[in-house]
Specification:
Layout (H helix, E strand, L loop, with lengths): L9 H4 L8 H5 L1 H33 L8 H24 L1 H20 L4 H29 L3 H32 L4 H4 L1 H15 L13 H20 L7 H23 L7 H4 L4 H18 L1 H10 L4 H29 L1 H19 L8 H26 L9 H37 L5 H24 L1 H8 L17
Protein name: Drug resistance transporter, EmrB/QacA subfamily
Keywords: Cell membrane, Membrane, Transmembrane, Transmembrane helix, Transport
Membrane topology: Multi-pass membrane protein
């Protein structure tokens, strides 16, 4: 399970003698530097390939239906295994998990950077997600056991949170620079030297720590949730061939059944991967739902903006990266506003209004065309989308921890991050099918062969994606309005910290 910024975290409760030794504390700011670099790498890889994807698709001859697996494989593996990764890091050893996670991440990055076939790139991205699920909670736990002074811990996690929030923007810019001036492969290969330096530094500086007590793993739960989500995502991608196809229905039904069985197993497990009492709560449930919806937009829907910028508007990778920044900028602006307002007015007003603002932004994006201006049609939509998401994301991280017992705090913190990634994976799968359907329908109605017509078909697919994303986001407002009862005095004094 992932960790929460709190004195009551499981990691803090079970700090080993090595972790709290004077030598480790004396090097705490160097430890923070190592963890910060690692966190930046994890966050970068969620967005850095977005800008590179059009070039990678052309180079490896990836079909339109399959290309989103470059993003989906990472988000799915990361989200599905994040809770287990946190357990492993606590019980196996945080330093050991950190080093192994980094090494595995580097190997997967190298395989992806050298890929000669689509399946190799998909496999590598999935591998990155697997090792990120081990690496991210280990990094957060190391900070928790290293910084024992409340004031210094607040500073350390402020740095960590800033990187988590701003890393996406850096990824978009770096992805554009590497793709345009080097090659798309360097968006993955760049991780190798970074990891090499971080591993050497970690081996020399970081001390080992473990949690004690009951250290059993919920492997049946981990396998069931991974297979269930994987089957569900694959079923949605197969829906491109038709929702009534036997393969589509079979995978979707199998995914639902496996997830139901997962819930049954968790309810009877003595040491569950996901304590169901965390999820099924009137306040916390809407927060996890909102996080999943935010993931569908951030990971799924915005991916198609990259295609629109580079394929239709013919922007260079660098300009495409810059053109995507207003979303991140909007999130950062209202994230600060939400952090200040939530303790004064409570989380509900922010979580209710935020989705409405984002919906307006997405509706504006449905009006894009082949020859429309970025400044008049795209920019306003991106800014509103980001502003709305910022008002939603920050309060829901607090709401997700309301009333959570100390021993469940880490699992709740990890779940808010896992739901974001899983929502992104499911969103990318569903949006790919919607994109393909919109494009196909346009070509059937407009059979003329021309470049303008081909671009118009692409845009038709993109606008269908943005329209469905708007519907998803719109659902958050009534869910929050009717279910969330939390007041400002109910909020925890410290928020969940994003791990990726």
């Amino acid at each position: 399970m992932g960790e929460r910024v709190s004195d009551a975290t499981e990691a803090h409760q079970h700090t080993s003698d090595a972790a709290s030794s004077p030598s480790n504390y004396a090097r705490r700011w160097l430890v923070l530097s190592i963890i910060a670099i690692t966190q930046l790498m994890i966050v970068l890889d969620a967005t850095i390939v977005n800008i590179a994807l059009p070039q990678a698709q052309a180079d490896l001859q990836i079909s339109d239906g399959a290309r989103t697996w470059v993003v989906t494989a990472y988000a799915l593996a990361f989200g599905a295994l994040l809770l287990l990764g946190g357990r492993i890091s606590d019980y196996w050893g945080r330093k050991r998990s950190f080093v192994v996670g980094m090494a595995g991440f580097a190997i997967a990055s190298a395989i992806g950077g050298l890929a000669q076939a689509p399946w190799q790139l998909f496999l590598a991205r999935g591998g990155q997600g697997v090792f990120a699920a081990l690496l991210a909670p280990a990094a957060l736990a190391i900070l928790t056991v290293t910084f024992t002074d409340p004031k210094e811990r607040s500073t350390a996690f402020g740095v960590f949170g800033a990187i988590a929030g701003g890393g996406a923007a850096v990824g978009l810019l770096l992805g554009g620079v590497l793709t345009e001036y080097a090659n798309w492969r360097w968006c993955l290969l760049v991780n190798v030297p970074v990891v090499a330096v971080a591993i050497i530094a970690a081996l020399l500086v970081v001390k080992e720590s473990k949690a004690h007590g009951d250290t059993r793993y919920d492997l049946p739960g981990a396998i069931l949730v991974a297979l269930g989500l994987g089957s569900l995502v694959y079923g949605f991608t197969k829906a491109e061939d038709g929702w009534g196809q036997a393969s589509t229905v079979s995978f979707i039904v199998a995914g639902v059944v496996l997830l139901i069985v997962f819930g049954f197993v968790e309810s009877r497990s003595a040491n569950p991967l996901l304590p169901l009492r965390i999820l099924f709560h009137r306040d916390r449930g809407p927060a996890f739902f909102g996080s999943a919806v935010a993931g569908t937009v951030l990971v799924g829907a915005t991916l198609f903006l990259t295609f629109y910028f580079q394929i239709v508007l013919e922007m260079s990778p660098v300009i495409s990266g810059v053109a995507s920044l207003p979303i991140t900028g909007g999130i950062l602006i209202t994230a600060g506003v939400a952090s200040a307002l939530a303790p004064r007015i409570g989380p509900k007003p922010l979580m209710t209004v935020g989705p409405i603002i984002s919906v307006i932004g997405l509706v504006l994006l449905t009006q894009i065309g082949v020859d429309t201006s970025y400044w008049s049609h795209v920019l306003p939509g991106l800014v509103l989308l980001g502003l709305g998401l910022g008002l939603l994301i920050i309060p829901q991280q607090n709401v997700a921890l309301i009333g959570v017992p100390d021993h469940d705090a880490g699992a709740a913190s990890a779940l808010i991050n896992a739901s974001l990634q899983i929502g992104g994976a499911l969103g990318a799968a569903v949006f790919t099918t919607v994109y393909a359907s919109g494009k196909s329908s346009y070509l059937e109605d407009n059979p003329a062969r021309s470049m303008f017509n081909a671009f118009s078909a692409e845009v038709s697919g993109y606008t269908n994606v943005f329209a469905l994303a708007a519907i998803f986001v719109a659902l958050v407002t009534p869910v929050v309005f009717f279910l969330v009862r939390a007041k400002k005095d109910d909020l925890p004094t410290d928020a969940a910290v994003p791990v990726g």
